[in-house]
Each structure stands twice: as C-alpha cells, then as structure tokens.
Amino acid sequence: MIGSENQTQKTEIAVCLVSGGMDSCVTAAIAMRENEEIALLHVSYGQRTESRERKAFNDIADFYGVEKRLEVSIEYLAKIGGSSLTDKKIEVSEADLENTEIPTSYVPFRNANMLAIATSWAEVLRARSIYIGAVAEDSSGYPDCRPEFYAAFEKTVETGTKPETNIKIKTPIIDLSKAEIVKKGIEIGAPLHLSWSCYRSEDAACGTCDSCALRLRGFERAGSVDPILYRK
Fold first, then answer.
1. How far apart are CA 176 and CA 187, in angstroms?
2. Do 72 and 44 touch, CB atoms closer than 8 A?
3. How many other CB atoms are there within 10 angstroms of residue 191's CB atom?
4. Where are the domains of the chain?
5. DSSP state of 200
6. Which segments in the chain show pLDDT lower than 50?
7. In angstroms, rounded to a whole number, what is the distance separating the alpha carbons of residues 112 and 116?
8. Rounded distance, CA 87 to CA 197, Å?
9. Helix or strand or coil: residue 121?
10. How do residues 71-130 score in pLDDT, each as one tens digit?
11. What is the Cα 81 distance to its own chain's centre?
12. Homologous superfamily of the 14-221 domain (CATH)
C-alpha cells in the first residue's frame, strides 16, 4: 500500500508538503523520522487564511530546523474559483460532519496541482519520495484525498519524469481517523501547537467550520485538549 507507516527505510532526502495544518504537521514529523533529511514545501493558492497557514509552515520548519524549504503560490486557483476557501462570494459553510456531499471548501483538483510542483522539486533534489498529509476520512468530501488518487498520480510521476527518477508518493496517515492522528502526533512529538487548521480566521480559530470541527472532535476523542486558540 502506498504510504504505509511500515516503510521506515531511510533515504537521503524526501520532499514533504506542509500546509501548516494538523495533518501535514504530523506527516512532517513522520517524514523526519523516516528520512535523513527532508525538504518542506508550502503551496499557497489564494485561500482565506493564506498568511496564517504560511506562518504555521515556517514555525513547523523552524521547529525541526529544516533548511530546505520552498514557498510558492498558485493563486490562479483563486482566479479559477469554485471554492469557499478562495472565493469570498461563497460562504464557508458551518460544520456538518455527517455530510456526504462535496463541501463548498473543496478546491477543484488542488492536490494534483500541489503534487505536480512537489514532483518537479523532488526530481531536481533527486528525492525518492514525496509525503503528503492526505486523510481518507476527508475523502467523502474531497475526491483528491482518496488512496486511489495517489496511486494514479504516482503512475503519472513514473511516466512523466526522467528514466532514472524514482519517486514514491507517501501518505502515512491516510487510513487514520483524526483522533488517531492526534494520538500519533503526541506520540512522536509533532508540534501540534504550531499548526493551523481553520478555514475562516487567522487570529483565533472559528471552531465551527468543517476543518475546526474535525480537529476538535479528533482531540476530544483522543482524550486531549487542542493547544491552539479558539473563538468558541
């Protein structure tokens, strides 16, 4: 299976996508343990909390002392629109954790855009793997969070890069619930207090968007308290 936690053989360097959220924070912590060196990539796309997520990325990178870090913007996704994260005319919906429809926060094909950039950088760095904090629990809403999407994209990478390039896409937390991600993060010392998940706010998390609700439920079910500040 792609991204299995059991694949702990160390490689020279790995690229890890870090949005600044809880899932990417824990994924970065796992990548640190599994590789001799990691390079951290942050991709902004004109989202509402762009500056706060960038701060979280740099705080996490500083925490681990990562020198190789790259910040890029694909703000054309905001110009394309179609998501409440990038279009202020579309309201960020209140949390509905029982919803099985694609939510307004879905950014069309975002993860493919991000993985393409990660692949380009990984090929230059001669990295053997790309880590991304995808979670299948989110896949009912986000089609680009499904394991089959990453399996297909890995085939695309294999087809579209140099013959000597061999890049695996690793999704080490894809089968975990939010509570299991919290427990894993605490277990391996991930700096969860530096992460940011809110879709709406940059000063204090709103507590009522889908991302906040999933995060809060994860901490509650893990028997722990979320260390970040909430309005509600």
1. 14
2. yes
3. 18
4. 14-221
5. S
6. 1, 3-7, 139
7. 6
8. 18
9. helix
10. 999 999 999 999 999 999 999 988 887 777 888 999 999 999 999 999 999 999 999 999
11. 20
12. HUPs (3.40.50.620)
* CB 41, CB 72: distance < 8 Å: yes
CB 197 within 8 A of CB 42: no
Alpha-carbon distance of 91 to 88, in angstroms, equals 7
**Tokens describing residue 163:** 């013959």
d(CA 5, CA 65): 23
Q: Tell me how far apart the alpha carbons of residues 132 and 145 are, in angstroms, rounded to a whole number.
A: 10
The structure's pTM equals 0.93
Distance CA 154, CA 175 (A): 18
DSSP for 44-66, written as a single string: E-S-TTHHHHHHHHHHHHHHHT-
Inter-residue contact 28 to 40 (CB < 8 Å): yes
